[in-house]
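Quick question, first post here. What does this chain look like in 3D?
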Amino acid sequence: MASLSFKLSVINISTDRQVYHETWNVIAEEYYYEDTRDPNKFVKSHNSLNLPVGTYIFSIMIIDNDSKHEWKKTETVKLSEITEISEIQPMIRVNHEYKFSGDNIELSIDTLFLKIQVPVLIRKEKYEAHYVIKDMEVEIVSSSVQLTPDELGFVMIPIAVDKEWIGLYEFEVKIGDKISTAEIGFVNTSLDRYFQDVKMMMNVMSAILPYRDYKDLKKMSPSEQKSFLYDYWKEQDPTPDTEENELLNEFYIRVEYANIHFGVLSPGWKSDRGIVYIQYGNPESVETTNRDSFGRTYEIWTYSGKKFIFIDDGFGDYRLFRQTY
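> Answer (accepted):
Ran it through. Tokens below.
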């Protein structure tokens, strides 16, 4: 958990005067340690302000209230007349206030709100917004709602959250002839966390599924693949009465370790050492031999009753040479 303060100021270049200033706080939470070390993870916050056409200097400072570390960013932005509807901002309602939810939604909420701004050029008193929700390219919801924009042209589209939603869903909103889209993920248990990228999970499953089962899985439609993977890991859960799926967590810990330590020209989980590591975990011992007469280096991994012998291909990628029992 981290406590962060955001400080934003905006200066109008033509008048050299500050036209906006605001400070707000954000509590960031991650439930898994490895996510706090993931360079692709970001703390996301959201703020809305209305500015006339012009050129501005945006300055933002982010302060970690625990370590007191500061990050600063300044950027010049030229604002022109907007003719399209804005990007979709997922929001939740807390104590009668709308708050930016980020791209991953906890399934404990009943209603998600899609915040969109309608440009001045097409703004009117009331709109019919049509929205479509897709799961793995399959349309699961299609509906319309009448909306009245606020003084800045923002509308809030309420979406009833289905407690069975898992992973990433595609949202498309159409107002008049203007369309905006977004991908939003839904999480509830540790199992759902891994369904944010079903294609990646599909590929990694080749390391543990029997070849015939994996071949059958590849033939399924995207939505069928998602259902198969969800049911598979649910059945493998050693403690089905808890929110955690310890076996799935261990599986992904091994995948991440393999990617960090065994990747050369491709992801580490695809390598021979990566596959063995995912299947068997840490070896009891690892022995590295000196170069043989052909200049090759060997690694010998020992498990109870098993040995895997790998040969360096000359580029640092060790290929499986022999398996003994």
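Residues 246-262 form the longest helix (17 residues).
The first strand starts at residue 2 and ends at 12.
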